Amino acid sequence: MSSGIQDTIVAVSSPSGRSLHAIIKISGHEAVRCTKDIFVPAFAIDLEAIPTYTSVAGNIQIKEEGIEIPVVLYVMKQPYSYTKEDVVEIHTLGSSLIVEMLLNSIVSMGIHDKRNIRFSQPGEFTKRAFLHGRIDLAQAEATMRIIRAQTDGELKIAVAQLAGDVSQHIKRIQDDAVSLCSYIEAAIDFSDQDIELISAGEIMGRLEVIKNNISQLLLQQETGKVSREGIDTVLFGKPNVGKSSLINALLGKKRALVSEIAGTTRDVVSDILETGGVCFKLMDTAGMDDTKEIVTSRAIEKTHSTLKKAQIILLVFDCNADIGEQLRKMKLDDLTGNVIVVINKCDLSKSSSFPELPAELKKYPLVHTSAMTGEGLERLKEILVENVLGGRINLSGSLPIFNVRQRDALRRSLQSFQQTMESVRNNESYEFIALDLRTAIDALGEIVGEVTTEDILSKIFSEFCIGK
């Protein structure tokens, strides 16, 4: 157990700043008793005798100041609280002065009566939930992501991880590895009896499955990219259809290079558009043409690579050129994301009617725009947001999304599994094979906290805010 785990901790768990409501949380052996000593209930009741999940109204006496503060207590008895300790939440007025009085009174009483009551360290409530087995380490990290979530997409991912999606995937892989290791170690015990419990071929086959499962997990994006970098949105089209001007108009600033010379963009240029509470990572790519110029062809190669990863693709066409001809230069087979057709440069159109769309484009949402006048830009933003809120963008994927620490443990585990396979290929003894396999299993255990150190815990929970 961590040092100080026997202490009773107290902290403000509501956001800082001015508000109508504030919450002080106390967790530990003295939580109920220390509250009882300063609490005057509205009706006769014994806090230590009441069942868990009980709320009680009353006042807390601040003897140092000679005042009473109206509060509602929410009492959660062990092991039914978040930390699996006795927890008392004090709900009161959102005055910072009142909150400070309450905190000082509780901690001062603990010092005076030698009750080991102190202020909480960052993340200490969640750390105790982990140490007492309420949640595993991956779920603890998901708690922090929920607190920091800025979009519905990131919140959805974090909630899924808190529900145990990451842990379940890792546990399945780990169970397979432990089962295999048990057979190998049993084979070692019976080696002197000429009994083959498991062959080298079967070991290789099972290791190959485990290795592929971990490799698949490592293909997933890192946690947080949805909110910090936005949903990957690529502008795709022929040179000089106005992609750079369009991205500048959407952003409301000059971000991409604009020129009358076709094919000016030679690299992927990106910036963040925030609209409707959703962040989009707009990427202005090199125009698609048939030139064989080395620099241009490399830029186009990078464009294709970007397209494959795109979650939304804006197909941009020049309103004043033959759309069918523009379309023939674009490889629609490469498109994997949600598509929106954008007919740009409408302010330059000499006709009052818009050109007919080719049949293969009619299945996609359509918007007519002008980067110069702003026509259609708001509608384009609305369609982007509709794609996300309508559930057409897969924000979480079918597999869990891992953070940097978890991905590092996965990579080390994968390396150990590969080393195990190499040991099998080299016909090394089962003792060495089992040793490599145990190293791989331990690395997986770091993700959910089965194998950990105080340094790892301190690093993770120090990133929490106090009171969580």
Written description of the protein model:
This protein has 468 residues and is α/β, with parallel strands linked by helices. The protein folds into three domains: 8-134, Gyrase A, domain 2, CATH 3.30.1360; 139-220 and 401-449, tRNA modification GTPase MnmE domain 2 (Four Helix Bundle (Hemerythrin (Met), subunit A)), CATH 1.20.120; 226-389, Rossmann fold, CATH 3.40.50. Helices cover 42% and strands 17% of the residues. It contains 15 helices and 13 strands. It has helices at residues 31-38, 96-112, 124-131, 137-148, 152-162, 165-189, 200-218, 225-228, 243-251, 294-309, 323-328, 377-389, 404-425, 430-448, 454-461, and strands spanning 8-12, 21-27, 39-41, 54-62, 67-76, 87-93, 117-119, 231-236, 269-275, 278-284, 312-318, 338-344, 366-368. It has a seven-stranded mixed β-sheet with strand order 3-4-5-6-2-1-7, covered by helices on one side. Strands 9-10-8-11-12-13 form a six-stranded mixed β-sheet, with helices on both faces. α7 runs antiparallel to α13 and α13 (404-425) packs antiparallel against α14 (430-448). The two termini are 19 Å apart.
